[in-house]
Amino acid sequence: MTKSLGDRLGVLLAVLALATGCLAVSSESVVFVRSGAPADQRKQVAKAYVTDGNLARLRTRLKERFPAATGDQLQGLYLKWNVKPGDGETAAAIIVGIQGQGLDGGEFLRVAGELVETDINGPSKQQ
Predict the structure, then answer these.
(1) Closest C-alpha among 59, 60, 61, 63 to residue 77
(2) 109-118 long-range contacts, Cβ below 8 Å, gap at least 24?
(3) Within 13 A of 39's CA, how many CA atoms are on the CB side?
(4) Computed over its alpha carbons, how large is the radius of gyration of the chain?
(5) Segment (H or E) for 30
(6) Could you report the per-residue pLDDT of 25-63, keeping only the tens digit for each?
(7) How far apart are CA 49 and CA 59, in angstroms?
(8) Cβ–Cβ under 8 Å, residues 83 and 91
(9) What is the pTM of this model?
(10) Which residues, in sequence order, are CB contacts of 122 under 8 Å at separation 6+?
């Protein structure tokens, strides 16, 4: 017995709904290494910051700020770096991301970004 197009479409939509419900959500925050230093130096700062040790310290600091965060949720935290040419200047950035579910990604990443910002650029002038 052949299925109608409507039946096949319904099955496909059900599979897609199940698949998207199982996918992890990923959000990122970008922290730029302050300009003023040569591009190569900014790149080295960004590259040197992205280490397992800094990631572990960041997870510990975030656990202090978000005590309800579970170990599994914190394991979804990641760091990476990137360099891209901008308006006459090369920008170096550290990307702080969280992959997973169950955290308020916006607030969590805002705090994570502030911590990384302080680490690489020093305290902001507003503090």
Answers:
(1) 59
(2) 109/27, 109/28, 109/29, 110/29, 111/62, 111/65, 111/66, 112/29, 112/58, 112/62, 112/77, 113/29, 113/30, 113/31, 115/58, 115/61, 115/62, 116/31, 116/49, 116/58, 116/79, 117/31
(3) 10
(4) 20
(5) strand 26-32
(6) 568 889 999 877 888 899 999 999 999 999 999 999 999
(7) 14
(8) yes
(9) 0.73
(10) none
- What dihedral angle (degrees, nearest 10) is formed by the CA atoms of 69, 61, 108, 53? -100
- Distance in angstroms (rounded) separating the CA atoms of residues 40 and 57: 26
> Residues 50, 78: contact at Cβ < 8 Å?
no
Is the distance from CB of 96 to CB of 79 less than 8 angstroms? Answer: yes
Q: What do you get for the CA distance between the two ends of the chain, in Å?
A: 71
Tokens, residue 125 = 């002038």
SS3 84: strand
Structural domains present in the chain: 24-121 (3.30.70)
pLDDT, tens digit, 9 for 90 and up, residues 79-117: 999 998 766 677 899 999 988 766 666 788 899 999 999
